[in-house]
Write a structure and sequence with these properties.
This protein has twelve helices and 18 strands. It is an alpha/beta fold. Helix 8 crosses helix 9. The protein binds zinc ion (ZN). Zinc ion binds next to loops.
Length: 384
């Protein structure tokens, strides 16, 4: 039968844990006058019973991703991460760095060069520090992707893998982390196993608040006795075991979260419209696509989404008629509420667009609009 085959271990047994039906390609933004309908593709997450990797089902779909603006939060986190690596001695005696790119941006090479770890020249086979920050999840073949990264680590070198953890996704109900183009959703527990299968051992882990919970794992080849595994990795493994990140019944909770979130968003927008309150969105992010489509939001409920990336202006959100506009509107016609689709931007946008709050408007975290099953009320987090 044609069930999924694990992208990492080739296992054939597993569970469909999240099914969002057909969704448009989340990185293809049509021209705003393109009436659609946009083609839809199944969007499903499957959890491998053999190795525990949560993964996207199906073949890659081609999409051209307009280059977004790097959020300050991503840039600040990279600086924080490199500082912590240096403080823990991981850069000492290492002088060549190589980086696997991510479409999300956020290169660490400049930060490492400032600390004397220079990028390897093009064509170099190995480096002392090999970095992958939110890159590897974009590879449909997870087994080959990790083998390639490992193969570039010089003797005595370190592999640094940074990922938005499945533990975060499940515990915070971030069901819309699932998207076309993101083929793997790593728990620390699974990634440690994947590394071991490649002769590598995770030695240290750091936790960051980015995306609600991001992990950086430092791994080196066995038997590299230079650094022993410290308690940080084991602490994350215990957290994963407690949370049940390999248990399909636990990961399936994302399906209920998707329903409560789309209903909560729609109910809130309908209530705003009924009260005569204007709403703009902020952040034409991939994660907003399945949320807006699932909630059936069109420009009758939200007139536009503001994004600072000029490449997206004049386009519209996939799967709906909501146009993407520049930030000038926030100053000329401040709305009653701005629905923020990327909570990591909150500090940055409050500072950049003070006119919103000055005119009595508020920033509302779109991630927090969840319908409660019991009362049917919508919880909302307001920042003012
Ligand atoms: Zn597997």
């Amino acid at each position: 039968m044609g069930g999924p085959t694990c992208r990492s271990c080739s296992g054939r047994s597993g569970h469909l844990v999240l099914d969002l039906g057909r969704q448009p390609a989340c990185d293809h933004f049509p021209e705003s006058d393109d009436p659609g309908p946009d083609p839809g593709y199944p969007l499903q997450m499957w959890l491998c019973s053999s190795c525990g990797l949560a993964q996207l089902v199906g073949e890659p779909i081609a999409a051209e991703e307009p280059r977004g603006v790097e959020p300050e939060a991503l840039v600040a986190q990279a600086a924080d991460a490199v500082e912590r690596l240096a403080a823990a001695g991981w850069l000492a005696g290492r002088c060549r760095a190589a980086e696997f790119p991510s479409p999300h941006g956020g290169s660490w090479l400049g930060l490492l060069a400032d600390r004397g770890v220079d990028p390897v020249p093009p064509g170099a086979e190995s480096a002392d520090v090999v970095i992958d920050s939110f890159g590897m999840m974009h590879d449909p073949d997870q087994s080959a992707a990790l083998a390639e990264r490992v193969s570039h680590v010089a003797a005595g070198g370190v592999l640094l893998l940074q990922y938005h953890s499945l533990n975060t996704i499940v515990s915070l109900g971030q069901w819309n982390a699932l998207r076309h183009g993101h083929f793997a959703y790593y728990s620390t527990s699974v990634l440690v196993g994947m590394l071991e299968a490649n002769g590598f051992s995770a030695r240290t882990a750091w936790h960051f608040d980015l995306y609600g919970g991001t992990v950086l794992l430092a791994a080196s080849r066995e038997p590299d006795t230079r650094v022993a595994r410290d308690g940080s990795v084991d602490a994350l493994l215990s957290d994963d075991a407690r949370a049940g990140v390999r248990d399909p019944e636990v990961v399936e909770s994302l399906q209920d979260q998707a329903e409560s979130h789309t209903r909560g968003l729609r109910d809130w927008l309908v209530a705003q419209r009924a009260a005569g309150r204007s709403v703009l969105g902020y952040g034409a992010a991939s994660r907003a696509v399945s949320l807006l489509c699932g909630a059936g939001v069109d420009r009758g409920l939200m007139s536009a989404i503001v994004d600072t990336s000029p490449a997206k202006h004049g386009l519209r959100m996939p799967g709906t008629d909501i146009p993407i506009i520049g930030p000038a509107e926030l100053a000329t016609h401040p709305p009653h509420a701005v629905l923020l689709f990327v909570p990591d931007l909150l500090t940055e946008v409050r500072r950049s667009f003070p006119e919103v709050e000055r005119s009595g408007g508020r920033w509302v975290d779109a991630e927090a609009l969840r319908a409660s099953e019991r009362s049917g009320t919508v919880a909302s987090a307001t920042h003012s």
